[in-house]
Structures are given as structure tokens and as C-alpha cells.
């Protein structure tokens, strides 16, 4: 190539020849680079081509690699399909007998779902926990005490100095926490709350000799209290108006509705010696009388206001009076130490 360039340089002017030399040199460099890249590409192709066809060890390795990749991909798809099928089958079994209800989701501060089961409305959270599959197997004991009610009709919870949280000490039978298995594992007397209708209580209740107290409340106050309770929920509050909730309540669409089916179901069973039916109103109107009724029903003694007279002697009473007067002399707080005889007798 240089032999061709020399005559060109000698027959032309220097500047022009130099330009042509640079131009030709660039062409040569580009041509050489392209040729080099082509050779590398061909060499690489030959390397892999030859190695995959001529090297038996490498050929087996590549074959196993391809087979492993195909097996892994197929296995992943099969597992995903199996899990989806299992989940679908489990969900189908879980929702057997349930009908999902149409609700206005704009009335709630979260995604909610409601289902109707054997005539009653239940929240999706309880339904999906699988509790209705476990309830039939729950065994009540003779020493168990159950407090049943429609939501917001009152309860018999008492304040004490127990360090045990209320949900554990007095749990709801159908709530996911602490769960029906945890309740079943407890020893000794068990105190359980429930909003379940009487028709959905575990069948073991009938012959268990367990005691059940049902608290009813007039439907108007129940609906108003229910509304304000739902408004106060932090995770999923009711964001509709009182009027919209009243319509839901009267249409038997509120959770644990229908109201009257719930109340009348227990009312009709009030003659059962294992069931005590009381009302929220009578509990507030004459609490002492109702408390005595509950105590007799549970076969426990209840101390009266004024029972201290039986246990304290004159010197101890005088000591109490001096101690009380000393601490209350600058206060208008006054305690009731005895009740009128009529009220005590109930």
C-alpha cells in the first residue's frame, strides 16, 4: 500500500499530498479496526460454537443448565398455579353459606365488606378469620359465664386492679383476638362476651350448665349509641350521617342485625334456667336489684353497702371516722355508708 502512495506524493504538491496521506491513513485505520472487530467476532463465535459442539464436558454443562432453567421456570409456574388453586378452594370453603352484601363504601373510612350468614350480618374481618368453621367445635364448661348482647346495649364489665388486658380477661368469643383457641385453652371459670345470636352459639352450650346473661336495650338508644361508637373508631370509622346510619339500622344492614331477631331470640329462651334476660334500662334504674338478681343467678354472694357494720367494732369505726374527717375536712366529697332499708332489700 505504501508503494502506491509514494508515486502519488512525488507527482503532486506537498501540502496536497500530505492531506491525501492523512486521509488515506485514516481510511487504513478504520479499515484495520473494522477488520479486527470482525475477526474478534468470528473468533468468539468459533470459540463458543466449537466449545459447545466439540467439548463434551462443556456441552453437558450447557445442556444441564438449560434443563435446570426450564425445570425451575416450570416448577415456579406450577407452584403458583397450585397455590392459587388452594387459595381459591380455601376461600370458597370459608365463604360457603355466606352472601356478600352490597354497601356504600363512601360511608366508611376504609375498605369494608359485610356478609349475611344464616340471616345475620357480619363484618368481613370476622368472616375471613374462619371463626364460623371453629365455633361448632367449641366446648363450654359448667363454670363458664357468657355475657351476650347486640352491639352497644351495655355490658357488665367491672373495673379492677388486674394487670391483664380486658380483651384477654373478658374476650369476645367470635373475635380474631385473642381467638377461640386461646379461650378454649383457658383453665378454670371462663368469662366470655359475645354478640352472636342465640342460634349461632356453639351447640355445646345447651347441655353445659354454663350461665348466660343477655342484656337488651331499647332500639332507639341502641342505634344512636352504635352510630357514635362507629364514628369514634380510629382504623375504620363510619363517615356517614346519623340519618344514613339509621336507614342502615332499620334496614337490618348494620353488623349483627337484624336487631329484633337478635333480641327476641334470647327473649324466647328466658325461661331456660341457664339464661338470664335483663335490660340496660332496669340496670340503671335499679342497679342494686339487678345486681342481686345476677348474683342469685350466678349463685354467688354479693356484699351490701353497709356490710362494714357487721365486720368492724366500735373502736375501728371511730378510727375510720377520725381518719375520714381529717382527710375530707376541706372537701365537699361525701361517701354513702348505708342505704335505706327498702333499697337494700330490693
Structure, described:
- This protein is an alpha/beta fold and 346 residues long.
- It has three domains: 2-85, no CATH class; 98-298, 3-Layer(aba) Sandwich (Rossmann fold); 308-345, no CATH class.
- Helix content is 53%, strand content 9%.
- It is built from 15 helices and seven strands.
- The longest helix has 41 residues, at 14-54.
- Residues 1-24, 40-52, 158-163 and 342-346 have low confidence and may be disordered.
Strand content: 5-15%
Straight-line distance between termini = 129 Å
Strand order of the largest sheet: 5-4-6-7
Could you give a short account of the major beta sheet? 4 strands, parallel
InterPro entries: P-loop_NTPase, Sulfotransferase_dom
Keywords: Transferase
Domain Sulfotransferase: 146-303
Protein name: Sulfotransferase 4A1-like
Which terms would index this structure?
346 residues; alpha/beta; Rossmann fold; 3 domains; four-stranded parallel beta sheet; three-stranded antiparallel beta sheet; 15 helices; 7 strands; 9% strand; elongated; disordered N terminus; disordered C terminus; P-loop_NTPase
Summarize it.
The chain has 346 residues and is an alpha/beta fold. It has 15 helices and seven strands. The relative contact order is 0.08.
List the helices and strands and how they pair.
Blueprint: H1 2-11, H2 14-54, H3 56-94, E1 98-100, E2 114-117, E3 120-123, H4 124-128, H5 131-134, E4 145-149, H6 166-169, H7 180-184, E5 191-194, E6 211-216, H8 219-232, H9 242-250, H10 259-267, E7 275-279, H11 280-285, H12 287-298, H13 308-311, H14 314-328, H15 341-345
Helix pairs in contact: 1-2, 2-3, 8-9
Keywords: Transferase
Protein name: Sulfotransferase 4A1-like
GO molecular function: sulfotransferase activity
